[in-house]
Specification:
Blueprint (H helix, E strand, L loop, with lengths): L5 H15 L16 E5 L7 E3 L17 E3 L2 H6 L1 H8 L14 E3 L4 H4 L7 H4 L4 H9 L7 E3 L8 H8 L1 H16 L3 E6 L1 H14 L4 H11 E7 L8 H7 L10 H9 L14 E3 L18 E3 L1 H5 L10 E5 L12 H6 L1 H5 L4 E5 L1 H5 L2 H5 L19 H13 L18 E8 L3 E9 L8 E10 L2 E4 L20 H4 L9 E8 L9 E7 L18 E7 L7 E8 L10 H15 L23 E2 L4 E2 L5 E3 L12 E3 L12
Parallel strand pairs: 1-5, 1-6, 6-7, 7-12, 10-13, 12-19
Antiparallel strand pairs: 2-3, 2-4, 8-9, 10-11, 13-14, 14-15, 16-17, 16-18, 18-19, 20-21, 22-23
Pfam family, one: LCAT
Keywords: Acyltransferase, Signal, Transferase
GO molecular function, one term: O-acyltransferase activity
Length: 647
């Protein structure tokens, strides 16, 4: 078995001794590593939910009792799916619980590590477990890592209305400051970034304007946005119309019922970067708690651009001619354009952009093809799906009392912002749907899928599709167009570095300094890639905003759901924090010139040279229990001084 990683233990102890002596008087944060806290905001479906009811399940030996695991308990899902659905689903109109069962989010780190603990199910449902293990290896204290789980089924306004989530989150930051004496590092993944964005906007209405930035500086040292769907995710559309099982043993129709009952389902819908809602912050003293309707307007670029700036239209629907064009009063111009085809009995194809998704045009158009949800009217009221979604859009998002979440996010006013995401994976960016002739929830079928990959758009059948593909592709879940929006947070001059993800000696590191960056135009480095090597590309800016740093990290082939378990990401985060708090650091960001092993797990046996690889760092040291040569390769006792190379 591996012994505790000596480099981390030595480095953490040395760091504490070095920096405690450099802490400023009066308890102010002045580079004291021991004062930092880490606050984790998980993503969609990444928090355990537990039953808060007693539910007797007929024809099943398993019932639901208070505190029983609901999300995720695959045993009960398999044996009592109807009971499980009652505990999971919400009323899609008002987001209340099912009359017979309710669930609430668990608390603490255990709520986000493994969703379904078990010998087999545990590793399959692991989310933040590896992250926590790394923190322990780094020497982080138990009270320095704080998880803030939430009910990921709810819209942002309901999170506050029902659970006072944002009030509690504010208290969490303030408690961490009082407990540790320093600000926090925020780690948010996927939907957790949307939650944090809403929190920052909510905070503007809770704190006097002149104290807002001061509060942020005192309580938040750095924000790490991991896999943030800043302009939404097209996969959400598939989940809403045909169902997305996420690997669960349920049908797509059941998955659609479940997903569409969540208020948060619309939070991740694609929207146009050219459309914005009015700023409630400007009405700080007059808005109060009223639920008015926000003005949602688009600038001229929306009308001039193709596909609302996205690579292609989000949805294309083939409508049978027998239904008639009067079924779509909001898009009669399109229907009239295709009148000749309809006369001939040919189907009409309707296309919808990201703007038409977010402003309700699409869901209004499909009302006649989702005539009845077909669910028990005591809970879902037999409304059409389009009607329900439109009502939810305008009540929970366009009419949100804080701000409209379907608005492009400008750089948050935090001192250090790091936007991190995966690229270069095959990612869905558009769909072709057609009515199936079946009742809800199986009334739509996918006839084709459009993918982005390696700077091109292709269909499921392999045909090239015309559109506006980006320089690369997304992370298998969120398109590159949405992930890379945070590049607009960078200033007019950017330093770019590309380095291999694996340990390297610096021979394959490429750099470009002071690259010109035009707002709303992607930055494409003039660099090469070896086809057999995965890289990290760093975009860094520390001069455009005095006293603030902004960085974007792109990790080749990093999967959206697994990126928080990436050893490469954890290594880079830790080195950046080591650099930031070290009194002898000379550069603004950690150097990328070299990467050596940091843990015993990074050492391995080089069979070609018949010795441990990275002889400068690693040595052969057998311990009882080792079963192969690579396991006996461990860091040298003198390797800790190598950390000074990263300053």
């Amino acid at each position: 078995m591996r012994e505790p990683t000596r480099l981390f233990l030595f480095a953490s102890a040395a760091l504490l001794l070095l920096l405690c002596s450099s802490a400023g008087a009066g308890g102010d944060f002045a580079g004291d590593y021991s004062k930092l806290s880490g606050i984790i905001i998980p993503g969609f479906a990444s928090t355990q939910l537990r039953a808060w009811s007693i539910l007797d399940c007929p024809y099943s030996p398993l019932d639901f009792n208070p505190l029983d695991l609901v999300w995720l308990d695959t045993t009960k899902l398999l044996s009592a799916v109807n009971c499980w659905l009652k505990c999971m689903m919400l009323d899609p109109y008002n987001q209340t619980d099912h009359p017979q069962c309710k669930s609430r989010p668990d608390s603490g780190l255990s709520a986000i590590t493994e969703l379904d603990p078990g010998y087999i199910t545990g590793p399959l449902s692991s989310v933040w477990k590896e992250w926590i293990k790394w923190c322990i290896e780094f020497g982080i204290e138990a009270n320095a890592i704080i998880a803030v789980p939430y009910d990921w089924r709810l819209s942002p306004s309901m999170l506050e209305e029902r659970d006072l989530y944002f009030h509690k989150l504010k208290l969490t930051f303030e408690t961490a400051l009082k407990l540790r004496g320093g600000p926090s590092l925020v780690f948010a993944h996927s939907l957790g970034n949307n939650v944090f964005q809403y929190f920052l906007e909510w905070l503007k209405l809770e704190i006097a304007p002149k104290h807002y930035n001061q509060w942020l500086d005192e309580h938040i040292h750095a924000y790490f946005a991991v896999g943030a769907p800043l302009l939404g995710a097209t996969e959400t559309v598939k989940a809403a119309l045909s169902g997305l099982t996420f690997g669960l043993p349920i049908s797509e129709g059941t998955a659609r019922l479940l997903f569409n009952s969540f208020g948060s389902s619309l939070w991740m819908m694609p929207f146009s970067k050219y459309c914005r809602a009015e700023n409630v912050y400007s009405k700080h003293f007059s808005w109060g708690s009223s639920r008015g309707h926000h003005t949602y307007h688009c600038d001229e670029q929306e009308s001039r651009s193709n596909f609302s700036g996205w690579p292609t239209n989000i949805i294309n629907i083939e409508i049978p001619s027998t239904h008639g064009f009067d079924a779509y009063p909001s898009i009669t111009e399109i229907a009239e354009t295709n009148f000749t085809n309809m006369e001939c009995g040919l189907p009409t194809q309707l296309s919808f952009s990201a703007r038409e998704m977010s402003d309700g045009t699409f869901f209004k158009a499909i009302e006649d093809y989702d005539p009845d949800t077909g669910i028990d009217d005591t809970f879902f009221c037999h409304l059409s799906y389009g009607t329900l979604i439109n009502a939810a859009y305008f009540r929970s998002y366009h009419g949100d009392p804080v701000f409209n979440p379907l608005t492009p996010w400008e750089r948050p006013p935090i001192r250090n912002v790091f936007c991190i995401y995966g690229i270069d994976s095959k990612t869905e960016v558009g769909y072709y749907f057609a009515p199936s002739g079946k009742p809800y929830p199986d009334n739509w079928i996918i006839t084709d899928v459009i993918y982005e990959i390696e700077g091109t758009l292709t269909s499921r059948s392999g045909n090239v599709v015309e559109g506006n593909p980006g320089a690369t592709s997304g992370d298998e879940t969120v398109p590159y167009h949405s992930l890379s929006w945070c590049k607009n947070w960078l200033g007019p001059k950017v330093n770019i570095t590309r380095a291999p993800q694996a340990e390297h000696d610096g021979s394959d590191v490429q750099m470009e300094l002071n690259v010109e960056h035009i707002h709303d135009v992607d930055i494409i480095p003039n660099m090469t890639k070896s086809p057999r090597t995965k890289y990290v590309t760093y975009y860094e800016d520390s001069v455009s905003i005095p006293g603030k740093r902004t960085a974007v990290w792109e990790l080749d082939k990093a999967n959206h759901r697994n990126i928080v378990r990436s050893p490469v990401l954890m290594r880079e985060l830790w080195l950046q924090m080591w650099h930031d708090v070290h009194p002898n650091a000379t550069s603004t960001f950690v150097t990328k010139a070299k990467r050596g092993p940091l843990r015993d797990e990074d050492c391995y046996w080089d069979y070609g040279k018949a010795r441990c690889a990275w002889a400068e760092y690693c040595e052969y040291r057998y311990l009882f229990g080792d079963v192969h040569l690579g396991q006996s390769c461990r860091l040298k006792n003198s390797s800790a001084k190598m950390l000074l190379d990263y300053l």
